[in-house]
């Protein structure tokens, strides 16, 4: 509400519009994402299983990286991270990516040239077997599994653990953080026929750990990774903690956007009262771009006679959703522009806060793309989003899904760079009017003065 009040006011903090403009602000609910942040910080700080798996995944994946052949470097050289070094990097709580030097070996827009590979000759089966064998011998992992089992089988003598009240509370919290599906599976394995306490839990968690490392390998081999550390964190969260930091929250927000335009709901009521022939300037930030896409689809379906100018700020809408809106109602849009972060800024904009890059190093858009999107009920890692330079470059050989390739082309043609319709931050000081932005983080577009002045050019 404070942001809406500010934007409706005078420049340079607002748009400075005159009485001839009627301003309407749709306040977007974000509390669910704040909950995700709280849950993820708790996981990193307090969950023994999460910490044990994260460290082992980092250690193992780093060792499997095969560096490109360069001057002064032998063919087949690999990366080595000791457990002590991993612990030290994470313990420093850096503002940025604690493994950025390794992540730089996997630039997401490199198109394969000079790029490191991940164990190109070892089969997935052998990788999974090797990882499980090493993890099973890891003391931190073993201790975490014993504690987890105590929350499932709390009675001593049945594979459980008798400890202090603090131990019991920590064990219960560890179990509660796991997704409902994982909790149900563990309960069945331990309490069902043939259940063997710690052994049963260990076998189950090892199986899920193998799934995590294989998805990491597949993404890195296919250039669908988001850098070394971000990809590991995304896949660990997806496999075991999806209810806390997974797709459910984002899916709810997307459904809310579509529901706005059902009969009697806010978006539809708004369109019903706008006179035919009226000019609209729609400015949508982040998930607001999903709302804008749904609005364009409805304007087309109802054949409303409206002239629309469209400004997107760090748009979080998926390419295929926005392509559908363009194909249905793109003719109603006159002027259009995207203001987005450059990929280097996007990767360094820690979504949980710039002091929390050690938990997840990249922006909300990278998180949505890597962890939150689904096709049906199937995870869709590295989903193309409208606001990501990674997918707007026109050089995306890793994007192989035909429908997504077509959608990306539709969006890029619509927001043609040749027509000055895509602006990446940070721009040069002498950039043309309307083509300037100095935003350096995803949440900064709606209060950065150069960006607001550029948006205001659409109201002339």
Task: Annotate the secondary structure layout.
Layout lengths: L1 H6 L23 H16 L1 H16 L1 E2 L16 H9 L8 H4 L13 E2 L5 H13 L2 H14 L12 H13 L2 H12 L6 H24 L6 H13 L1 H4 L1 H13 L6 H8 L5 E7 L2 H15 L4 E7 L5 H11 L3 E9 L1 H6 L15 H9 L1 E2 L2 E2 L9 H4 L9 H13 L7 E4 L23 H8 L4
Parallel strand pairs: 3-4, 4-5, 5-8
Antiparallel strand pairs: 1-2, 6-7
Helix pairs in contact: 3-7, 3-11, 6-10, 7-8, 7-10, 9-10, 10-11, 15-16, 16-20
Question: Could you describe the 3D structure shown?
Answer:
This protein has helices at residues 2-7, 31-46, 48-63, 83-91, 100-103, 124-136, 139-152, 165-177, 180-191, 198-221, 228-240, 242-245, 247-259, 266-273, 288-302, 319-329, 343-348, 364-372, 389-392, 402-414, 449-456, and strands at 65-66, 117-118, 279-285, 307-313, 333-341, 374-375, 378-379, 422-425. With 460 residues, the chain is an alpha/beta fold. The protein folds into two domains: 2-33 and 248-459, no CATH class; 47-245, no CATH class. Strand 6 and strand 7 (378-379) form a beta hairpin. It is elongated. The two termini are 25 Å apart.
Stretches with pLDDT under 50, minimum 5 residues: 109-113, 155-160
Average per-residue pLDDT, rounded, comes to 89
- Cα-atom radius of gyration: 24 Å
Please tell me the total number of domains.
Answer: 2
Helix/strand/pairing category: alpha/beta
Largest sheet: 4 strands, parallel
Distance between the termini: 25 Å
* Structure summary, number of beta strands: 8
Q: SSE order in H/E notation?
A: HHHEHHEHHHHHHHHHEHEHEHHEEHHEH
Proportion of residues in extended strands: 5-15%
Strand order in space, largest sheet: 3-4-5-8
Q: Can you tell me the overall shape?
A: elongated
Instruction: State the helix count.
Output: 21
Please estimate the helix content. 40-55%
């Amino acid at each position: 509400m404070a942001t809406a009040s500010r934007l409706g006011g005078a420049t340079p903090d607002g748009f400075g519009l005159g009485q001839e403009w009627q301003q309407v602000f749709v306040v977007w609910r974000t509390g669910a994402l704040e909950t995700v942040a709280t849950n993820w910080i708790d996981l990193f700080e307090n969950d023994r299983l999460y910490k044990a798996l994260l460290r082992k995944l980092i250690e193992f994946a780093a060792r499997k990286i095969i560096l490109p052949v360069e001057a002064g470097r032998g063919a087949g050289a690999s990366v080595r991270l000791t457990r002590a070094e991993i612990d030290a990097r994470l313990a420093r709580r850096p503002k940025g990516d604690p493994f950025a030097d390794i992540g730089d070996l996997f630039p997401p827009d490199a198109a394969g040239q000079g790029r490191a590979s991940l164990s190109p000759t070892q089969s997935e089966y052998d990788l999974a077997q090797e990882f499980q064998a090493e993890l099973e011998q890891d003391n931190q992992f073993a201790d975490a599994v014993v504690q987890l089992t105590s929350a499932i089988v709390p009675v001593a003598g049945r594979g459980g653990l008798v400890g202090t009240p603090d131990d019991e509370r920590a064990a219960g919290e560890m179990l509660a953080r796991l997704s409902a599906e994982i909790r149900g599976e563990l309960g069945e394995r331990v309490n069902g026929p043939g259940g063997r306490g710690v052994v049963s839990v260990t076998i189950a968690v090892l199986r899920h750990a193998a799934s995590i490392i294989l998805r990491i390998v597949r993404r890195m081999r296919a250039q669908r990774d988001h850098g070394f550390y971000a990809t590991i964190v995304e896949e660990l969260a997806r496999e075991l903690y999806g209810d806390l930091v997974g797709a459910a929250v984002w899916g709810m927000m997307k459904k809310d956007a579509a529901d706005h335009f059902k009969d009697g709901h806010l978006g539809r009521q708004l369109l019903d009262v706008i006179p035919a022939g009226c000019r609209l300037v729609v400015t949508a930030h982040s998930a607001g771009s999903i709302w804008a896409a749904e609005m364009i689809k409805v304007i087309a379906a109802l054949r409303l006679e409206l002239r629309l100018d469209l400004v997107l700020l760090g748009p979080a809408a998926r390419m295929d959703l926005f392509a559908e809106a363009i194909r249905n109602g793109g003719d109603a849009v006159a002027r259009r522009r995207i203001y987005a972060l450059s990929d280097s800024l996007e990767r360094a904009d820690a979504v949980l806060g710039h002091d929390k890059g050690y938990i997840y190093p990249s922006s909300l858009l990278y998180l949505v793309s890597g962890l939150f999107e689904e096709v049906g009920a199937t995870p869709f890692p590295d989903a193309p989003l409208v606001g990501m330079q990674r997918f707007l470059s026109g050089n995306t050989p890793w994007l192989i899904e035909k429908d997504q390739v077509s959608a990306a082309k539709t969006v890029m043609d619509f927001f043609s760079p040749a027509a000055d319709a895509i602006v990446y931050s940070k721009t040069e000081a002498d950039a043309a009017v309307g083509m300037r932005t100095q935003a350096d983080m995803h949440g900064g577009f709606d209060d950065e003065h150069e960006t607001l002045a550029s948006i205001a050019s659409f109201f002339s």
